[in-house]
Amino acid sequence: MLIVEDDADIREQLQMIIEDEGYTVHVSSNGLEALEYLRSLKVDDYPRCILMDLMMPKMNGAELYEALQSDQMMKKIPVVLATARGEREKAPESFPPGIERINKPMDIEDLIKVLEKHCR
Amino acid sequence: MTLSRDHVLLEEIFTNSPAFIAVLQGPEFVFEKANKKYYEIVGHRNIIGKKLIDALPEMKDQPFIEILGRVLESGLPFTADEIPAEIQRTPNGPLETRYVDLVYQRILDHEGKPNNILAHGVDVTDKVLARLKQEESDRLFKTFADSMPHMAFVADSEGHITFFNRRWYEYINGMEGTEGWGWKEKAIHHPDDIQRTIERWTHSLKTGEPYEIEYRLRRHDGVYRWHSGRAVPIRNDKDEITSWIGTNTDIHDYMVALEKLSESESKFKTITDAMPQMVWSTLPDGNHDYYNDRWYEFTGAPCGSTDGEAWNDMFHPEDQQKAWRLWRHSLETGEPYKIEYRLHYNDGSYRWVLGRALPIRNKDGVIIRWMGTCTDIHEIKEHEKVLKEIQEELETSLLARDEFLSIASHELRTPLTALKLQSQSLHRKLEKGMTQQISMEKLKSMVGITERQIGKLTHLVDDMLDLSRIQSGKLTFKFETADLVEIIRDVSERMEEQIASSGSSLSVNLPEKLLLRIDRFRIEQVIVNLLTNAMKYGKGTPVHVELSQTEDKALLSVRDEGMGIAPENHELIFNRFERAVNANEISGLGLGLYITRQIVESHEGRIWVESEIGKGSTFKVELPK
Hints:
Structural class of chain A: alpha/beta
Low-confidence stretches of chain B: none
Shape of chain B: rod-shaped
Oligomer: heterodimer
CATH superfamily of chain A: Response regulator
Helix content of chain B: 40-55%
Mean pLDDT of chain B: 87
Largest sheet of chain B: 5 strands, antiparallel
Mean pLDDT of chain A: 84
CATH class of chain A: Alpha Beta
Radius of gyration of chain B: 65 Å
Order of helices and strands of chain A: EHEHEHEEH
Strand content of chain B: 25-35%
Number of domains of chain A: 1
Structural class of chain B: alpha+beta
CATH topology of chain A: Rossmann fold
Number of helices of chain B: 15
Low-confidence stretches of chain A: none
Distance between the termini of chain A: 11 Å
Distance between the termini of chain B: 169 Å
Shape of chain A: globular
Largest sheet of chain A: 5 strands, parallel
């Protein structure tokens, strides 16, 4: 799984929790970093799912999503948005309406459900 | 001889007497003798020795022969004045009426017998004709005077009234008591007018100038009506005034109407002058003929100087053409005129005015005049402008608020997410009995995370509280004398680790001591904000802090070597919710510099930035000593 999150503490916690659950995880602090990481991978090694924040420096969630969709292979990776309730209405048009979301502040149960759904 | 001389004398007298004389003899009245005047009156006919009836055959049907008969018979003389006689004074000519004063008297003949008649008299025809003519003329005048609608009078040269026409009697109702009635003794003039009338009439009598006056005369029912009195003198052939002819014309209705008109005009003027608006009127062709006082007061134009079409000069040059066009259009179509324009004000400025005008039509629908007003709407216009500015400001600040809320919600959720994950993962481990597996190192890291996130939350909440305090004017300060050097040292030490972990280095250049009267806590906040910004935007470049002083000021500068700030944003960044860069790139509420500036200004200091894109930024704070 790939997690894109700009807050270092949250990154660290998420990594800890997910690894505790027995999954492998890679964290990136912004969209650009995430994209660079994906480009460094072979298609077979692509993560099963990407959990991304919306507001991030350098490349935000929407821009990253757009970049993923423009790549034939990367567009196949499922994307889950971590959005605050207030951000839902504001979520940029660049996302399809039915995109998977989990609420922020994040609930561990929700996170584990996403992991079980995409990464098992 | 003596007899003969007497005879000649008598003969002479007889012949040349100014009276006509004839002697008729006997019952047939044969002309025995006639003098020059007699021949004249009968037309120089040959009458001597002839019977009266033959000599003057036209006497046949007249009473004279019969009268002569009576005188001859009775001996009683006959006298008559102005008796008419029809005489054919030219052969085959017409009969001519002559008026004569006549005496027939019986006298003795040659034989001493009373057989003769002396007929003598005077031809008074001219006198009589003149009198008749006068009488006719008088009658004519009276008829004329009585038939006219005016009250006419005739006065003698001294002003005494000698004649009144019928209208006078009708006016005072009856002829009784009119004897001696006139302008002076029994005046019917209004008491307020009598003195003026006497003076005026006396003046005309004295100078012969025509008499003209307006006064009130009392009618039979006691009502005084206005009259126009006029009189002109009549002069004789020696140019002496013999009489005056005058008339009095009833002008009461006219005067009342005039009075009403002037009353209504004065009422109109009072109303229009009392109005806060300017009022004007024009003729149907658009030529101005009236402005109220307010117009002249407002424009400062001299009275009357804007009549006709000169009003246009009072308009702002940029508005003149438009006003002309609309006004011409209204004049041509009769449509109401409405326009906003700038009008010259008496202090030389121009003020916004609302101009309106409506056509006034007569009963046939023809426009007889235009009535217009100008209303000063300058204040309203100004308010509108201010209102629009406020509205725009409000819209901008609403947008900024929405943006802030969205940022705030994101910023608040980040520490909440971290804390929530922390507690949930601990909870999960507790449930699974996995607490033993948590290494000491992990525990340390977890506590670190918790502290940092709580710090972040506290900072955010503090900033928001400060914002709300600033907005409600409740940001309070506790001033005390403190050493700014010491404060900077404390803050730098506290933040050293954080700065280092962001990849930056901190260099500090401070004097030994700098005592100021400040709110220690708030100034600390200023330094923390500036250092945090330098760290955030410096992106790992060195941060330099410097403190210097002049006689009356302390100058703090915080410099980074980061991305820099474009000049157009140098002022903007100190506003609420503003940042020079995209919100996505840097976390935080965008309140730091706003709060910082409020604090500095509350210390009567100032804060500004010196920066260029790509060359880092230096924030400078100046505080008074």
